Amino acid sequence: MKRRSTTDSxxxxxxxxxxxxxxxxxxxxxLRAIRLEALTDTPDAYGSTYDATVTFSTRRWKAxxxxxxxxxxxxxxxxLGMVSGGFNDQHPDTYWLYAxxxxxxxxxxxxxxxxxxxxxxWATSEGASxxxxxxTISVARARAFYRKMGFVETGESLRMERxxxxxxxxxxxxxxxx
Length: 178
Fold this sequence. Notes:
Radius of gyration: 15 Å
CATH topology of the domain at 13-129: Aminopeptidase
Strand order of the largest sheet: 1-2-3-4-5-6-8-7
């Protein structure tokens, strides 16, 4: 299924033909489609499940697209990936990177680094000094990618709430020059 989205220029970044931009409520269907794809493709990577998420109402999707900081990566109007960011109340002046996903056909290119860069730029503009993320130990390619992007493991780990078998490693990256 092709995912199409609308265009919004606020905080948008172009990398060649790739556009990375924040979502608005008008993007709810595109966000829903890419999120459900992510939950099908790599279910162990997310705190929610396909079965629970597929039941969300249109109202809830519109709220997620407009009230949560999501970014979509698209080329030619087709959505290739997503990421979200938010405030980290556990560590002052820091933010989280959440819900990162890139469609298999777009992996290994500029989509994933572009999505991370978009969240980092947004967090920096909000005054953040560091960005944190959790990554499931069983998704080795994601951990390797985040290391390549400059994230380091903090030594902290926790069990995923929805499946206590899955272990999450906490990683962080500075957003300021040392």
